[in-house]
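User: Here's a structure from my thesis project, written as structure tokens. My advisor, Dr. K., wants to see whether a designed sequence matches the one we expressed. Can you design one independently, without my sequence as a hint?
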């Protein structure tokens, strides 16, 4: 995808953390999973054009290495939940054995929040927190944390947003 990516049904939503009390949202695909997701961002942090450019040429064009890293982290996290913490939990057939990219069909992304570095607003690299679920009885959602195209972490949903992507000491991204 190139700069031609456009969000659909763009509108506003309440956001208690935004200085003006609102954020922008729109719908579009997340190519690595094929999900149609709701994207959220604050226009005080980035323009609609910047958000669409990051989605189109960043998130929807993740390099193969990043997708493999995402799948590896998801599998490691999934194995801990399924095999160690909740071995009796209901789950889709095949999920316990899924390795590598075979985990992707079990993943469902619902929302993606886009952020700019809160410690350095001049940092050109944007980040994202992806909110997802899997086909199992685990009550907590999954949060996938990305900076640029680097998969930083996969974990249970904690909702730290941009503060999970950058550390205060980071002046620019790596």
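Assistant: Designed independently from the structure alone:
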């Amino acid at each position: 995808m190139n700069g031609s990516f456009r969000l659909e049904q763009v509108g506003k939503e309440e956001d208690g953390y935004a200085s003006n009390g609102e954020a922008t949202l729109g719908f579009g695909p997340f190519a690595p999973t094929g999900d149609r997701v709701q994207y959220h961002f604050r226009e005080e942090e980035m323009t609609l054009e910047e958000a669409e450019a990051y989605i189109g040429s960043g998130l929807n064009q993740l390099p193969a290495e990043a997708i493999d890293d995402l799948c590896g982290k998801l599998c490691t996290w999934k194995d801990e939940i399924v095999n160690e913490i909740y071995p009796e939990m209901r789950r889709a057939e095949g999920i316990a054995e899924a390795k590598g990219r075979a985990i992707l069909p079990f993943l469902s992304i619902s929302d993606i929040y886009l952020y700019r570095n809160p410690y350095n607003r001049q940092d050109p690299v944007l980040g994202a927190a992806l909110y997802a679920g899997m086909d199992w009885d685990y009550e907590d959602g999954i949060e996938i944390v990305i900076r640029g195209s680097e998969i930083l972490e996969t974990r249970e949903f904690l909702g730290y947003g941009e503060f999970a992507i950058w550390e205060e000491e980071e002046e620019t991204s790596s």
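When you compare it with your expressed construct, this may help: The longest strand covers residues 107-116.
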